[in-house]
Amino acid sequence: MTLMKSLMGAAASLALTAGAALAEPALIFDLGGKFDKSFNEAAFGGAQRWAEETGETFREIELQSEAQREQALRRFAEVGANPIVMAGFAFADALGQVAADYPDTKFVIIDMVVDAPNVRSVVFNEHEGSYLVGMMAAQASKSGTVGFIGGMDIPLIAKFSCGYRLGAQSITSDIEFVENYVGSTLNAWNDPSKGLEIAIFQFESGADVIFSAAGGTGLGVFQAAKQQRKFAIGVDSNQNSLRPGAVLSSMVKRVGKAIYHNVVAYQEGLWRAGSVKYGLAGGWIDLARDEHNQAVFSAATSIRINQIKRQIILEQHQDINRLARCDEEL
C-alpha cells in the first residue's frame, strides 16, 4: 500500500514529516474526517487512486478546528506541496488570504469559486442529479410526502433542494415536502444523532422518502429509515451499502475523480487556473444502482432515469429552464 504522510491532530501536529520530496500534492479534508462515508471519503478515494497508479505519495491533513484552515494551507505551501487541494466550500476565505502569498503554488478548491491566477475552482451541477433522485422519491412514495435534510442552509445546498423538488413535482405535481436543515455551523455536516432525530421527525410528519444532503450527518438518516422501514437517499459517495434495502439510491458526486484529474493535469503540465463545472454529462454526477439497492431501484426505473438524464444533458428536457434556475444563486 502506498505510504501517505499524514498531518493529523490540532495545531501542534502540523509539524511536517522531515525529508519529504518537493512537489508532492496535498489534500486537506474538511471537518468530519476523511472516512465520513460521504464527501471527504470521496475526495480521499481520488487521491488514493492517483497514488496507487503512480507509486507516488501525497500529504494530507484532517482538520480538527476552523483555525487550522489557513495554517494548513500555508504550511503545505511553504514545504512546496503542489497542487494543494481543499475538499469543501468552507476553505474559500482562507484560500483568498493565502493564494496571493504563494504565486508559484497551485490550489484546487472543490464546491466554491475563488478567483485567483493560481486557483482552480471545481463546482458541480448538483441540481441535475437531485432532479433524478426527486423523481425516484416521488415514484417510491406511498404517502405523497417526501423529505429533504440539508446540512446548512446555504446556496450550495439550495441547489440540491431545488432540483429535488422539481424532480419530484415532475412525477406528482401536488407532492408535499418536509424540509429541515441541521445547523448553522460546520458541525452540521457531521452529526449523525441530529440526522436521526430530524429524520424521525420527518417520517412522523408523513414523509416516507428522505434525501439527505448533509455529509456524515446522513448516517443518522439512514439509521432512521431502516428503523422506520422507509427510504433514504444518499449523497456524494455511493452509500447504498450502509443500510441495504433502506437506501433507495445515492446521488454520487465524483469529487475524487475531479481531484485525480487535477493532480494528473498538474504533473503533465496541463493544469490551468479558472473554474470548471461538472454535471450529468461525462458521468461526474450519477445515481448509484448496485447489488445493495437493486430490489428497490428496478431495471425499469433505471431505464427511465437514463432517458431523463440524456434529455437533461442534451438540454431537451421540458424542465431544463426551471432546472437551470436552481443554479443561479451560487
Can you walk me through this structure?
- The chain has about 325 residues and is α/β, with parallel strands linked by helices.
- It has a seven-stranded parallel beta sheet with strand order 1-3-2-4-5-6-12, with helices on both faces.
- The two termini are about 40 Å apart.
- α1 packs parallel to α8, α2 packs across α3 and α4 crosses α5.
- It has two domains: about 150 residues, Rossmann fold; about 160 residues, Rossmann fold.
The whole-angstrom Rg is 20 Å
- Per DSSP, the total helix count is 10
At the fourth CATH level, what is the homologous superfamily of the largest domain?
Answer: Response regulator
Content-based structural category? alpha/beta
* Name of the CATH first level of the largest domain: Alpha Beta
CATH architecture of the largest domain: 3-Layer(aba) Sandwich
Across the major sheet, the strand order is 1-3-2-4-5-6-12
Helix content: 25-40%
As residue ranges, the low-confidence spans are 1-22
| Largest beta-sheet characterization | 7 strands, parallel
CATH topology of the largest domain: Rossmann fold
Question: How many domains is the backbone divided into?
Answer: 2
Number of E-state strands: 13
Mean pLDDT: 91
**Based on CA inertia axes, which overall geometry fits?**
globular
The fraction of residues assigned to DSSP E strands is 15-25%
Order of helices and strands: EEHEHEHEEHEHEHEHEEHEEHH
Note the gap between the termini. 39 Å
Task: Reconstruct the topology from this structure.
Elements lengths: L4 E4 L17 E4 L9 H16 L4 E4 L5 H11 L5 E3 L5 H7 L8 E4 L8 E6 L1 H15 L4 E6 L4 H17 L4 E6 L10 H13 L4 E5 L4 H11 L2 E6 L10 E7 L1 H13 L6 E5 L6 E3 L11 H15 L6 H6 L5
Parallel strand pairs: 1-3, 2-3, 2-4, 4-5, 5-6, 6-12, 7-8, 7-9, 9-10, 10-11
Antiparallel strand pairs: 11-13
